[in-house]
Amino acid sequence: MLRGDITRAIRDAVMTELAVVGYGRLSIEAVARRAGVGKTAIYRRWSNKLEMVLEIVSDVAGRSVPLPDTGSFAGDLQLLLMIVSRALQHRIASQIIPDLMAEASRNPQIAETLQKALRTHQQAVGDKLIGQAVARGELPAGTDPELAVDLLLGPLYWRLAVARTPLPDDYLDKMIEAVTAALKATG
Amino acid sequence: MLRGDITRAIRDAVMTELAVVGYGRLSIEAVARRAGVGKTAIYRRWSNKLEMVLEIVSDVAGRSVPLPDTGSFAGDLQLLLMIVSRALQHRIASQIIPDLMAEASRNPQIAETLQKALRTHQQAVGDKLIGQAVARGELPAGTDPELAVDLLLGPLYWRLAVARTPLPDDYLDKMIEAVTAALKATG
DNA sequence: GAACGGCGGAACGCAACCGTTACGTCCTGG
DNA sequence: CCAGGACGTAACGGTTGCGTTCCGCCGTTC
């Protein structure tokens, strides 16, 4: 019986508000104002700020990166980096993710939610990616998928979400080359 | 005439409070409580929360990483990674840095301060590191120092400050191997 | 021993936000 | 045509924090 358009307005407002002021300063009243909605409409759906944010965020983050299989490691890598870099250059996402990550380090519930929504999936993608490459003989058998994920996501995350420096045109290509060489070396 | 011990107590309290609740929820009253100090003592030194945090943080962050020169690229790399990983595993630092980074994306003053205190210095270290290695012939001439910094700091930052996963014993060694191979490949 | 000034503590008025409640409106289904 | 329920608005009492002010205490300086 809850109206869908209202719910959607609230969800949007929460994401925007998260991006603008961060979780620490997010207030229900501001969300209601931004959504053009009464506080009652919010409290009818969620019982407090934490529950609301967790539900909304985990819902959005749940729809995540597909598992690539292009037939070659270089292709998989290129596709994955494109997808991730596009996601991390999204205005809202690049504001919200670092903020929630920081918040997660002091709030176990947020940590757990993000863990489920992001990290687990990432590692699964990484495992598959490396597994395929090893099976094809493109990477040595001992290649560590965990290190691989760090080498892949770390620099991108660092640059796009932390340092907030734009990507030069050939950056992703260089990264593919670099990461490939790195992983071959650590087998 | 301001008492030094009081000032020091406040500085410590600010750092701790930043780590515990983050910038967004940091309150002058909580800082005063934690420092065992009157609010007046704080307002006698700084005129508001932002000014106080900026001054204290930039002071702490100013004392930063030395420029390594061990005579070989592998040695430089090992030393640098050790220093950085130790810093990022420090309880207070690993809480405060991601929090302020997230805050910086919405507060230009914080962004500028962090830029000065951290990023500029990092890039200088990176430039020197790569420059030395190129001069010694350990890396190809075209090696991009910016990409190098990303490849070095990204994975460490990602793992220690974001994912908060502990480092296996051989992790840094693997990283050195991987990054060296990566940089040689992109020349 | 008196003046000075930083100190902690307490209280101020103001603002924002919490979570809740009461009310009147509007839409929908029966 | 009427009942039900979700809606926005407004107000509630309570909490927290702001930045300021005033007080009495105490160590320093002259």
Q: Brief overview, please?
A:
The structure is a homodimer of 187-residue chains. Chain A has 187 residues and is an all-alpha fold. Helix content of chain A is 74%, strand content 0%.
List keywords for this structure.
mainly alpha, 9 helices, homodimer, 187 residues, Arc Repressor Mutant, subunit A, 2 domains, DNA-binding, 74% helix, Tetracycline Repressor, domain 2
Walk me through the structure.
- The structure is a homodimer of 187-residue chains.
- Chain A has two domains: 4-59, Homeodomain-like (Arc Repressor Mutant, subunit A), CATH 1.10.10.60; 64-186, Tetracycline Repressor, domain 2 (Orthogonal Bundle), CATH 1.10.357.10.
- The first copy, chain A, has helices at residues 4-21, 28-35, 39-43, 49-62, 73-89, 91-104, 108-135, 145-163, 171-186.
- Chain A has nine helices and no strands.
- Chain A binds chain B through residues 20-25, 94-95, 98-99, 101-103, 105-106, 119, 144, 147, 150-151, 153-159, 162-164, 171, 174-175, 177-186, and chain B through 20-25, 94-95, 98-99, 101-103, 105-106, 119, 144, 147, 150-151, 153-159, 162-164, 171, 174-175, 177-186.
- The structure holds a DNA duplex (30 and 30 nucleotides).
Looking at the structure, the CATH topology of the largest domain in chain A is Tetracycline Repressor, domain 2
Cα Rg of chain A: 19 Å
Number of domains of chain A: 2
Largest beta-sheet details of chain A: none
Taken from the alpha-carbon principal axes, the silhouette of chain A is: elongated
Name the assembly state.
Answer: homodimer
Strand content of chain A: under 5%
Based on secondary structure, the structural category of chain A is mainly alpha
**CATH-wise, what's the superfamily of the largest domain in chain A?**
Tetracycline Repressor, domain 2
State the CATH architecture of the largest domain in chain A: Orthogonal Bundle
User: Counting H and I runs of at least 4 residues, what is the number of helices of chain A?
Assistant: 9
Number of strands of chain A: 0
- The CATH class of the largest domain in chain A turns out to be Mainly Alpha
Q: Assign a percent range to the helix content of chain A.
A: over 70%
Low-confidence stretches of chain A: none
- Largest inter-chain interface? A-B, 43 and 43 residues
Q: What is the helix/strand order of chain A?
A: HHHHHHHHH
Distance between the termini of chain A: 57 Å
